[in-house]
Amino acid sequence: MIKVIKPGLATSVQDMGRPGYYHLGIPQSGGMDLLALEAANLLVGNPGDLAVLEATFMGPELEFTEDAIVAVTGAAMTPKVDGEPQENWTSFAVKSGQVLSFDFLKGGARAYIAVSGGIDVPVVLGSRSTYVLGALGGFQGRTIAEGDELPVGSGSGVAGRTLAAEMRRGPANPAEIRVLPGIFWHWVEEASGEQFFADTWKVAPEADRIGYRFRGGNPIQFNERERPFGAGSDPSNIVDGCYPYGSIQVPGGTEPICLHRDAVSGGGYFMLGAVISADMDLIGQMQPHTPTQFVKVDMDQALKARADRTTLVGRIRDALG
User: What pTM was computed for the model?
Assistant: First the structure.
């Protein structure tokens, strides 16, 4: 059992997500940085898909009632055991009665706290991930709170295992996020589309598990067209459509929003394109005000990036057993 002394800013139970229900309006949820989440599990000897804690911007303070092996990956938030600093991306021991806390954030946005045996909350629709908007999964369908007691499964691990730096991923500064233009791309004026990729955008404060908003670039200019009945007067409106994971909508043509793990599955805004799957982990580690360059790619480049990420995950699994 883990007792929550301080919950941090927005700490929730997450695993690899619950695919298969998006058509019913239930998003995938799961870790915003799945590579870091899986690596944390493997470091403590867990299967890669067990539930961990995802801490955003600020770490929690946790008291352990049993001995455990712990690893923290993702954002640079130095973990401390009874005040003694530990290494990120490295497994370490926590004894019964000891307290795990965190230093301030030095880089990235989300840290993944894996415990040997995993966070043992009930499985809901195939996943232990928390979907806060739907009060679904995780620990009572919400972020953790002071006084909570989190159940932990049985497991064993070894302290001192580490993941080599060259196998860790995080966004550059400025960040480069690859985008595959979508079926509505022809709505955008050619020069405006080129400008979208030439501009430097910045992550807005509205950046969470639902989506990331970007500001600072030029407004999107639309080609003239006849608007279908029911679409509304704004040129960014559509009658209604399904939102793919990672899709970029631009309400009013002004501020792009990239939909992430807890996003709604459809609505009435056109989609400029979608961030490729290989770069969604990077968005999950971007802080507000991070300068960002969107990079236009084609399908072959997107598939190559996905294959490269798959190869990297395979290397991590081989390295950590």
Answer: 0.94
